[in-house]
Amino acid sequence: MPLPNDLKDKFIEIVEVNHVLTDPSLYGPYTDDFTDHYKSQPLVILRPNSTEQVSQIIKLCAENRLGVVVQGGNTNLTGSASTSTPDSEVLISLTRMKNLVSVDTKGDSMVVEAGMTLADVHKCAEDNGKFFPLSFAAEGNATIGGCLACNAGGVAVLRYGTTRELVLGIEVVLPDGRIWNGLRSLRKDNTGYDLKNLFMGSEGTLGVITKVVLKLFPIPKEKETSLVCVESPAKAVALLNRVKDSAGSLLTAFELISEKPISRVKKNLPDVEVPELSPSPWKVLLELSLFEKKEESVLESILEQAFEAEEITDAIIANSLKDSHKFWHVRESIPLADRTEGGSIHSDISLPIASIPEFLEVSLKRLKEEFPWIEDSIFGHLGDGNLHYNFVSPEDPTLTYRFEEEIRRNLYTTVIEYNGSISAEHGIGMLKKHHNDEFKDPIELELMKKIKNAIDPEGIMNPGKLI
Amino acid sequence: MPLPNDLKDKFIEIVEVNHVLTDPSLYGPYTDDFTDHYKSQPLVILRPNSTEQVSQIIKLCAENRLGVVVQGGNTNLTGSASTSTPDSEVLISLTRMKNLVSVDTKGDSMVVEAGMTLADVHKCAEDNGKFFPLSFAAEGNATIGGCLACNAGGVAVLRYGTTRELVLGIEVVLPDGRIWNGLRSLRKDNTGYDLKNLFMGSEGTLGVITKVVLKLFPIPKEKETSLVCVESPAKAVALLNRVKDSAGSLLTAFELISEKPISRVKKNLPDVEVPELSPSPWKVLLELSLFEKKEESVLESILEQAFEAEEITDAIIANSLKDSHKFWHVRESIPLADRTEGGSIHSDISLPIASIPEFLEVSLKRLKEEFPWIEDSIFGHLGDGNLHYNFVSPEDPTLTYRFEEEIRRNLYTTVIEYNGSISAEHGIGMLKKHHNDEFKDPIELELMKKIKNAIDPEGIMNPGKLI
Prior knowledge:
Two copies of one chain form a homodimer.
Chain A: H1 5-15, E1 20-21, H2 28-31, E2 44-46, H3 51-63, E3 67-71, E4 89-93, E5 100-104, E6 109-113, H4 118-127, H5 144-149, H6 157-160, E7 167-173, E8 179-182, H7 195-199, E9 208-215, E10 222-230, H8 233-247, E11 251-258, H9 259-268, E12 282-290, H10 298-308, E13 314-317, H11 321-341, E14 349-350, H12 356-370, E15 375-381, E16 386-392, H13 398-402, H14 404-417, H15 433-439, H16 442-455
Parallel strand pairs in A: 2-4, 3-4
Antiparallel strand pairs in A: 1-2, 5-6, 6-9, 7-8, 7-9, 10-12, 10-13, 11-12, 11-15, 14-16, 15-16
């Protein structure tokens, strides 16, 4: 249906005419999904600039039983910020709500509006002599509200936790349009159910997060980054435990990377400088964050011991920040190198860390049996047990897409067998909803539905996603 | 009502006759509350030894619409492990469910039954070369299940977080007796609503936590402990920020202690050795945990800078583990010294850290105006914004008890004005239920009730507590 004129007028009254978009030729940035997988067809796109406006919009949607999709930077990878049925849902973009509300440098917290990009959150923290650790490739566009809605992970989870652990309070517009002000900046509060964590990670299905109280941290004084050669994932797990035992909370990143995607970076992205190291089937990229200036490298002595214990075969330590960026740039170039190779599909599974070596062996064998042509591209946050277990099919790029469903089923079956998760950080959205319905504990799904019905009985919040 | 015989027979069938207690003369350890405030009168006390037995008990209670109170070590401070109406509720003690299920030293996690004491959890971790950081005075009796139910805090929250942040997975018997197996040991899992955090901190009102997957950490190699003199809470906040900026995540404890309770320790507990320091109205007890052996003290240079900046007036650094225990023993002796003084009542408020100096001034003034005879005993985890704001009335110990309600209302009113919480770590239970109903955001209370009704529609789980 087209947007009825009376409703359009009411929306214009709330957010002004410039921010009620009904011309599909202007929809692009909001409807074209980051993964080229989903194309939204909203009834209307609204761009409110305050919690009060969001509240009024949701009230109107509730009265008219209109589905609501809320969007931040539109960088989601599972379709959770896209419409699920054409011409019937209201798409709300929060990108105009990007203000810094307040900073408390003595209490190490900061209040921001949900539409601020993660990169701007970093900047606001740094401008105040503080550090906000959440970090991932899309941070220039991704909004902090989106990070909360999907409980984003990234490269510093090992030390600082996922988004959940970085948030002190939230403000939420509920499915009936009322505003819950949970903007507390307390480190400890045991006065009721943990509503904050319930809304976080619920992918917009319970309400609209409009403001956030974030934890801030001291800026590390120094970083030590190293790229290391290991013969197997088992050796990488041994190294991980050695570094954790020796460096404790100084360890902030521990990434495992298969040589295969690195060789694709070399081949497809010749401008990316890949450090020279002895040949090895796996690499580890690890980083310590130090809070005092050191004369001697902490990492060097740990890596020497690892070498003597035959856990690693070669290693290079960054001599400068530039070097360190170079190491990370290799890691971050993998998705583009894979896409260039052809037929790239991605996943973000997690597993109990100790079971990863065996899981990799078993799962790869099963995948190769069913899809002999498949080529794997495995890398990820080993320190969190989270792998990006991706695939390419360079011979025929259409193959992986044609068999995507079967590939995912094959992979996820092994993941569940090893007590893992089919989504460590990207979430469920529309992409994995049917997989989640199939693989998740039915009692857990039932509890989720009970909560959904209790908080959003009309089911207007982000229909067709997650649940 | 007395327990009907047919029901008694059914309970005996589930847990065997020795573990169905109906003789009140045997009730003591389960019914006499830690705070001498509540005296339970259960219909029966059951002591199951497996999740399956708990499940069968809850099924039977659900069929008969019997209220269920679950108890760990019975060390709760708010009555949340006591019955709320006499002779009508089933009290379940989980203290027989105290087994270690499994340890994963490579993945840094451990599965234990809910009835294991926190002290035994520490021991199991240490026996496997690991560290579990949750720690507080009652850890010899408190069970890990109780810690989860109340989201216990303690002395290491600053670095490691509250119980919530130390748990990877849980197993729960739901109000209909079914078992939800959420015993995942994953560091990241974004496949649905955060049920784990919903059950944690719900004080037994949503289900019975029967098993737990705990995070383990490397054992710190060394600790540096110091007792420091400061002139005011504002100076203590400045010192906190200095240490955080200089030592980052090495800082594991930062306790503020008023001189008044320390002088009561000296007076009432002459066996406790109090280190000699220059006179000052406030002391700070702080601790760093180091992961490498150091030749030079990290703390010494930080404290020297703080002295030059006139943030501190004197300091003593522990020379040995024995010294360090001595410092902590002073801190831990305060509650007993206060009780000896007479009329001790306790609270566990939290506030945004930066507002604590002003809050203390304003709240003390208001309390002294209404209760000129009152004497304060303030100490607590300043690093988390959490204060134990306690009182004594040595002249007439009955005074504080008689005016307890008015004192709490006076204090909590100021707490709420400063955006604080009336319970940082002890929880609500029965003690603060009416205060919570009065002071908590009505929208938040309404959301909590919706969730309670969705998960426990008959309201059998821990009736009369929290909600």
